[in-house]
Amino acid sequence: MKDLNKISVEQKELPSGNVQVKFFIEDEVRPMYGYLLTNEPKPVGEIILEIQERMLQRRMSMSGINPFSLKNPVKEDHNFYLYSA
Fold this sequence. Notes:
The protein is α+β, with helices and mostly antiparallel strands and 85 residues long. The protein has 1 helix and 4 strands, in the order E-E-E-H-E.
């Protein structure tokens, strides 16, 4: 797994009571950013662990799958979005 020690987060409470976390992954080769939706405010350490776990899950679900095959489609996670910066 990539070294994800360079993750910075910003939390914003939404009118719904959920918390939107915007995160930045500082990487010289491939910087990324994304959003995580949680039900409640969490400590930064827990948020970083959750981001790492979700990235690992995404990587595991994408490995070994033919992108043109309809078998074993990757499950969409509507509470976690990741983009290249």
